[in-house]
Specification:
It is built from 7 helices and 6 strands. The protein is α/β, with parallel strands linked by helices.
Length: about 200
């Protein structure tokens, strides 16, 4: 099985060369509101709930949502975040686009806190966006987590290397991959149930 991150060039030459039996496009699947029940059992919505519930449990109510872009999958993520906020009885999260360039990320965080000074925590679309926020907070002299708590989503290897180390949500990605592949191939999936997502607590919250 070949796993190919989005935004890495044209896909058709890869398909022509490999002639795969099946292709699973997670972005398109999640963007289709009829494709899933929302993932409240063990999918994306459930992971987001674990993430935001952690921040709320630590006393945060004014929370921002760090996004890497404004694509279809981030749109689905924003919808689930809105639903989780309503479920937990907190105000809607403040979305902020955090670009990959460090200067851009710093400018985005500065603008967010200038407009919404009551924000005390950031839940990120993924660890990469969270790491951009950590770098921006460092550049702005914002203490983490004393002034701003930050939590990622997917518990990447880079999370533990950040300063401060990034709290994140661990997801049983191999099990999800096996289940998706077996569904595509028409094989049984009853032995591929992923473990529930969980918070890996580090220094950033």
């Amino acid at each position: 099985m070949l796993v190919r991150p989005g935004g890495t060039g044209e896909l058709q030459p890869v398909l022509d060369a490999l002639r795969p039996r099946a292709m699973i496009s997670f972005g398109e699947m999640y963007a289709d509101g009829n494709a899933f029940d929302g993932g409240w059992v063990d999918g994306l919505a459930a992971h987001i709930e674990v993430q935001i519930r952690h921040l709320v449990g630590r006393g945060h109510r004014e929370i921002a949502l760090a996004l890497p872009d404004d694509g279809p999958l981030t749109g689905v993520h924003r919808r689930h975040v809105t639903e989780v906020a309503a479920m937990l009885g907190i105000p809607a999260l403040r979305p902020v686009l955090v670009p990959p360039a460090r200067a851009g990320a710093t400018a985005a965080l500065r603008a967010l806190l200038a407009e919404h000074p009551d924000v005390t925590a950031v839940g990120a679309f993924g660890d990469e966006a969270a790491l951009r926020v950590l770098a921006a907070a460092h550049d702005l002299g914002i203490p983490v987590p004393d002034r701003l708590a930050v939590i990622g989503l997917d518990d990447s290897p880079q999370a533990q290397l950040a300063v401060p180390a990034l709290t994140s949500v661990h997801i049983d990605a191999p099990a999800y991959g096996r289940r998706a592949a077996r569904q595509a191939l028409g094989l049984r999936t009853d032995d591929t149930t992923p473990e529930p997502s969980r918070v890996v607590l580090r220094e950033s919250t």
